[in-house]
Structure formats: structure tokens, C-alpha cells
Design goal:
The protein has 5 helices and 15 strands. By secondary structure, it is of the alpha+beta class. A hairpin with a 4-residue loop joins β3 and β4. The longest helix has 19 residues.
């Protein structure tokens, strides 16, 4: 399976008091002293130690346990095992189609996941980086667990974790890489756009793409203009020989041997997943070696710090 790093922002919010307007802007707290004396970096370490013992959530039938914690200044990283339980099932050997194991309701199929939290001083925003393995991740499980733990220990405050949407980081990645593929995408193209697809029944809509692929696509100047002038994404590529009005452009860029994809028409929803599958070393079970994924993640973190907190460099 492919291995990714997913980046999030992490903040502490002071809860609204009775009488405050609901539409009032949230009051974000300085992480190193969010309530006047407690440091959220220490809270994160305490929470991870808490997960060494408190491993089950009986309501959601989830299992999560910390296997390793490392401290590096304002950063804390480690390995968590996570999975779900509550249903019995057969585990089959796909080569022989035979039942290799009978999974019981109290058995959890767990995977290891790396995480790194960076909690800078004197700012109201930190960075949380979580490993994803294929379609599997720990964002929901980890997020709900720390939110519950934090609210129980620090009344009047809430942890807020959001996908890191950082246009400057996306621009830097695009500008420093090699664009390998462009996808001009039209959503819900009508069936009558395609000969042979109308079967005489209900009309069906399809997504339609025009794909440009090469070792290097010379479109960087247009992309820079797109960002600088805040142009509409439909002005980025002109398809002269096609009667094709697309809705968005997806860019696949190669940086240091890794591929990343960005949807230029929906940057506000872009998730900066970083594919590290081809650059991380694997153990005997095909999981990333801690030292390998840790070094890659630190470089990725430094890239974001350079954009988000330049005064700390």
C-alpha cells in the first residue's frame, strides 16, 4: 500500500461564555500558555502517555495504543497502533481461498501509524502530521480521543484540529517540482456527449477528463500567473481542438521523487497529502521504519515552518 503524510493545524479555543454572540470570532489561545500557565506541548505528551493504558473506546469500538514516544524540543512524535473491533469475521488466505483465522468480536485488526506534533511557543497554531496507509488513517480516532481528553482536563477550552490549507506551501511545492500531468476535469458531463453510451433508459452523468501527460509540462508561468492574478482556473489551459469546457484543473507534480496532486480549482479544500511510498524504508511487515519516516517528516515539517512561522527559523 502507498504511504502518505497528512498535515493538520492544531489550536486551542477558549469556549464562549454565556451571553457571547454565536457568530463572534473564535478566541484562539497561545499554545505554550493557553490558560495562563499550562503548555499544550506538555498536554500532548501527557495525552500520548495516557494512550499507553487507555486503549479502548467502547462507544465507537475503536482501539488505539501508543507504542513509542520521542521528544525533540517543541516537537513530539511516536508510533500508534489503531484499529476497530466489535464484529466477528473470517480472515481468508487470498491465495488458497481458505479461512486462516476466525476473528472474534474482541479482536482488533490494527496497523501502526506515525505521528508528529509541533507546538511552537508564543503562537496560537501548531502542526500535526499523521501517517496514512492506503485508505487507512487515524485522524478521526486520534482527534476525537484528544478532544475528549482535553475537554475533561481543561474546562472552558477545546482542541481544534483542521486540515492544513496553506496556499503558500502549495505554491512552493509546485514551483520547486516538475509538473508531470494535468487533468482538465468536467463534472457530470451528460451522457449524450458520448456515442454508444445511451442505452435508452434513464440519463446518466459522468465525470470527463482531458489528460496531458509528459516528462515535463511547460505550464509553470501560467500557473504563477494563476496564483498572482487570482485568475479563474478555466483560464489556465486552452483546449483549442476540443469543444470541452472544464470545471477544474488537477496538477500532478514530482518533488524529490515523490508525486503530489493538487486541485487548483478547489484550493480551499486541498489536502496536502505527501506520498512518501518511494522514499521510505520498510520493515519485514512492509511498514515504514521509524527512523526513515521520522527523517522524511522532519524535512516536510521544516518546509511548512518556513512558510507558516518564518520568524522561528
Amino acid at each position: 500500500m502507498r504511504t502518505f503524510l497528512a498535515a493538520y493545524t492544531i489550536r486551542v479555543v477558549k469556549n464562549k461564555e454565556r451571553g457571547e454572540k454565536e457568530n463572534q470570532s473564535p478566541q484562539y489561545c497561545t499554545l505554550s500558555s493557553f490558560d495562563g500557565h499550562n503548555d499544550f506541548r506538555n498536554v500532548m505528551e501527557n495525552f500520548l502517555n495516557h494512550l499507553k493504558i487507555n486503549i479502548k473506546n467502547e462507544i465507537y469500538k475503536t482501539y488505539m495504543k501508543v507504542l513509542r514516544i520521542e521528544n525533540e524540543g517543541r516537537s513530539i512524535c511516536g508510533i500508534l497502533e489503531s484499529g476497530i473491533y466489535g464484529l466477528s469475521s473470517n480472515i481468508r488466505d487470498v491465495d488458497t481461498d481458505s479461512i486462516a483465522h476466525k476473528k472474534k468480536k474482541n479482536h482488533a485488526d490494527v496497523l501502526p501509524f506515525y505521528l508528529l506534533a509541533y507546538i511552537p511557543e508564543d503562537t496560537d497554531e501548531g502542526i500535526l502530521i499523521l501517517q496514512r496507509t492506503g485508505k487507512y488513517g487515524i485522524r478521526s480516532n486520534f482527534g476525537s480521543s484528544i478532544e475528549k481528553y482535553f475537554s475533561a482536563h481543561y474546562r472552558g477550552f477545546t482542541v481544534e484540529i483542521n486540515t492544513l490549507l496553506q496556499e503558500e506551501i502549495i505554491k512552493k511545492i509546485l514551483y520547486s517540482g516538475t509538473i508531470k500531468k494535468l487533468r482538465c476535469v468536467k463534472y457530470q458531463a451528460p451522457v449524450d456527449s458520448f456515442d454508444g453510451l445511451d442505452d435508452g433508459h434513464n440519463e446518466t452523468s459522468y465525470n470527463m477528463e482531458v489528460v496531458l501527460s509528459a516528462n515535463r509540462i511547460p505550464v509553470m508561468e501560467k500557473i504563477k500567473s494563476f496564483f498572482d492574478l487570482k485568475e479563474n482556473v478555466r483560464s489556465l489551459i486552452e483546449l483549442r481542438d476540443f469543444n470541452f469546457s472544464y470545471d477544474t484543473v488537477k496538477v500532478e507534480v514530482e518533488v524529490d521523487g515523490s508525486l503530489r496532486t493538487f486541485d487548483l480549482g478547489h484550493l480551499n479544500r486541498t489536502r496536502t497529502y505527501f506520498d512518501i511510498s518511494d522514499s521510505t524504508r520498510l520493515d519485514a511487515d512492509d511498514h515504514p521504519v521509524f527512523e526513515s519516516i521520522h527523517e522524511i517528516t522532519k524535512c516536510y515539517l521544516n518546509e511548512m515552518i518556513e512558510q507558516m512561522y518564518p520568524s522561528l527559523r
